[in-house]
Amino acid sequence: MRFLKDLKPAAFAAAPAVSALVAGGCGVMLLASAARPSEPERFVQLLQTTPALLIELSHLISSLLGLVLLILAFGLRARLGAAWAATMIVMLVAAPLGLEKGFVWEDTAILLAAAAALAPFRKAFPRTARLSRMEVTPGWLVSAACLLAGAGLIGVWSYQNADYGDAPFWRLMVDADVARSVRAWVVAAIALLAFGLWRMLGTAATPRVAGEDDPEFARVRAILSRPGTARPNSNLALLGDKRFLFSPSGESFLMFGVRGRSWIALGPPVGRVDERLELLWRFRELADAHAARPGVYALDAEDLPDVVELGFSIQKIGEVAVLPLLGFTIEGTRRGKARRAWRQAAEAGAQFEVVPPEGVAAIMPDLQRISDAWLAGHAGGEKGFSMGGFHPRYVQEFPVAVVRFEGRIIAFATLWPVADRSSFSIDLMRYVDEGPKRIMDFLFVELLNWGMAEGYAAFDFGMAPLSGLKDRPLAPMMSRVGSLLFDRGEDLYNFQGVREFKNKWDPLWRPRYIAAPRKWTIPLLLADVSLLTSGGMAGLAKRPKRTD
């Protein structure tokens, strides 16, 4: 008994895949059975008690139900509760039809056994989406068409090898048994064609990029403004380069970007916790329906159970530095340099201020001047997707921390707050060399003090890419390559410098991940994330302007 109890979780975990195979197998069986000749002795006995019209209808309906089981197998694999219920109904309806179409009791027994085997596993199909929202992929439709064609070939072979197999084909077509099988196969083929056309027309188009004038932007703002629904980097939804999927309630959304065949969700769904898994399933199914390569980028550890439920592979891509603000102090040896820079800047006359969103327009010319000067001295252009860029409309969405020196703004950082004040972070950080040295240390200290005064629980410094990956003999290959890049790839990116700058504040380091259906697609997705963020190859190749 203990063994059976321990086996139960494994059985429920395997139930969706096994149920899909069972349903698909039963579907093929019904299609093949409808295509084969009837057993003469059984058929004669059946004709004595059953009207011929009922036999004809049983053949047609049985063939259609076989096709329905093939399609429902896709929903079972996706763990749809409605697919499980529909499969049970179809099997229980198709079982007695096996007796009515030619007393094929073997089909009836197999269908009843399959239904009995699937019945205890209702809880293995927790998704509540309607069957009409099931995005059947082109590959699944092609597979169903091949199985249907195979059933037709079985029928052709069966009749060619029957007792009257030497008769001309036109003579066979007037035979009632042959005509019945051909009709059942043709009806199923037409039904599959109709279903395929309906799904082709009914499959949702790739969601368009939602700009600032799009009504969806108002929905995004409303969701972000609710307590407990967002994280600091969820504010990237307002950048104007994302596509969105919304939950039926309208209280949750998932944002993603598209580059080539890659569909990359940025972070987990934002909004109600109970709607996140369903949105992830919709994202994966919609990507599959468009023959795209789905992935989810920038996941925290608490997000992993949902993507594991989708069957995704996971790879660590770095670590996020989070500093709890309760009891924060600038004192301590590790923060000594930042403390001295802060005091020197304050003594020199630097002043800190957080400008609310409604006041940002008035200082926009100064921010633009600083941003242009900063960009001129750095490689690459404006960022996007996983990083914010300087776009006046986007900058005005958030509070902006500024540092003034001698009456002029010399540094600024745009802030990412969240409604429940669990944490906040910064997006853009830009400055000019017109004031005290290490002015950004001054800005950070003042910003942390401001966060404590405003009641925020933590400050998110953002991710250090490739940080925390291990080069061990048994570590995954991607982790070992990432560790090598972190140690020796400073010419490509300042990996260690980013880690050291964040680490001097003595934060907590939390892992961050990317997830995809197959492990080998993760490098492709990471390359596309980089291109989406940098603005393509042109953005990656852009070099800083020379000042000589």
TrEMBL record:
It is a multi-pass membrane protein. The chain crosses the membrane at residues 12-32, 52-73, 80-97, 103-121, 141-160, 180-198. Residues 221-515 form the Phosphatidylglycerol lysyltransferase C-terminal domain. GO terms for cellular component: plasma membrane. One of its GO terms (molecular function) is aminoacyltransferase activity. Its main location: membrane. Signal peptide: none annotated. It comes from the Bacteria. GO terms for biological process: phospholipid homeostasis. It holds the Pfam family LPG_synthase_C. The keyword Transmembrane helix applies. It is found in: Cell membrane. Keywords: Cell membrane, Membrane, Transmembrane, Transmembrane helix. This is Phosphatidylglycerol lysyltransferase C-terminal domain-containing protein. It comes from Phenylobacterium zucineum (strain HLK1).
